[in-house]
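ok so for the tutorial part 2 we go from a plain amino acid sequence to predicted structure tokens. step 1 is just haveing the sequence, like this:
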Amino acid sequence: MTKIVPDPPHTNILKTTACATFGSCEDSHDPLFSVRAGLNVEDVLIHLTILLRSAYATNEQACQVVDSETRHLLWSTRTAVDMAQGLAQALLGGMEADRSRPEAR
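step 2 — the prediction. this is what the tokens look like for a chain of 105 residues:
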């Protein structure tokens, strides 16, 4: 039997944040900071890319003033930050592409 009406689009897409706490110094005290629940995910991703860009720049400066052994460790961090930034930018790009599709309007 041929299905005449297609399934509705999958709408189980994350649009807001859940509450998350951080800044407990490896659980030595209660968390000092939190991300509020209900924030727009796209706004959070934009802030995330800004934070990652700052971490990348700081790491880059540190690479210029340390010995070669420490520089290798910093390069590992640089690569991880670069990869995290790429993932965040890919998510933002996907969200932007979804918004520009005619069926999303």
